[in-house]
Amino acid sequence: MKKILQICTIDLSLQELLKPLIVALMEKGYVVHNACTDTGRFESLRKDGLTMISVPIDRKIKPLSNLVSIYRLYRLMKKEKYDIVHVHTPIASVLGRIAAKLAGVKHIIYTAHGFYFHEGMPKVVYLLFYYVEKLCARWFTDWLLLQSKEDYELSLNKNFKKKDRILHIGNGVDIYSKFNLSSIPESEVRKLKKDFHLTDDHVVFAFVGRLVKEKGIFELIQAFRQLKRTTSNVKLLVIGDVHPSERDQKSAQELKKLLEDDDIIATGFRLDIPALLAISDVFVLPSHREGLPRSIIEAMALCKPIIATNIRGCREEVIDGENGFLVEKANVQQLFERMYQLANDRALRERFGKRSREIVEKFFDERKVIDIQLALFEQLS
């Protein structure tokens, strides 16, 4: 049976994003190894039966460190003689593909969870990352898999690879067992509400993500403070933290004081996301850059109305006026207005939430995303 190496930057990405695919591959009989930076999750992943290999990969462009990572990945590939190398996340995907090409790996697959270049970037920076992605796709990749439809269409139109080597796989979550209101124990919901001093009268806005500037967290707090001055029964649930390897450490220091608010519930990193979303009324992601965000899909699966920025990825999930609202990036006033509208219109929240679930069931079922990838692995010889 084929031997596969999965590569990403840190173990959190593997745990939160890649694990369902890895498990599905193992169930099909593939031998799967996983290489990334160990930030403390290797032990639990190994207990779940995953083969974890520590290869430190910096999340920043650091030539010496990056070269060391390429060398370590190259040595691993030459030793283990993988049939397929499958890479993820921006830095790891570039380093992993170079190592795989040097090692003579037969099949190199890259899943772009969202191209690093994006609208709003300075033109010079955009072009730099655009050409890095294009050159790596052209010369160091055999199969290019895109989660975002916009990325997929751009790859086709700009000839990143031959059309038959570019696949749109979409994104998805477990919408039946995990992200389903009927699967969340009512006792867990009651306990969380009690712990956070929430009542049925509160309208809870939830955010899930890294607490960094590009996620729009600063605009969200500004808009929420404005909302508090007009609506007394609102709370903001902020779920996430800043990992030590994160590029943007400055945001964490600036946010610390902003989060010291009786109406803001800052939970830090949590694993009980379904239950936390279940106690929320509206999900907000005012991000500056996304691929095809899972956090929105998770909230939609739990019948939540969404407020998100009108950027790549978000606008593939949120249909403005159907299951939520799209606002312009960094526009605090628009964000406030949409939060105010949903805070004061329960019927609209319920209508949007119902539509969110319908959209998820049609387009964002994790099983369909995994099946597309399994079919690709099956055809490779």
CATH level 3 topology of the largest domain? Rossmann fold
Q: What about the largest sheet?
A: 7 strands, parallel
Strand order of the largest sheet: 3-2-1-4-5-6-7
Q: Percent range for helical residues?
A: 40-55%
**CATH structural class of the largest domain:** Alpha Beta
Rounded to an integer in angstroms, the radius of gyration calculated over CA atoms is 21 Å
* pLDDT < 50 runs, ≥5 residues: none
Number of helices: 15
- Tell me the structural class: alpha/beta
Kindly report the average pLDDT value.
95
Write the CATH architecture name of the largest domain. Answer: 3-Layer(aba) Sandwich
Give a short summary of the structure:
The chain is 46% helix and 17% strand.
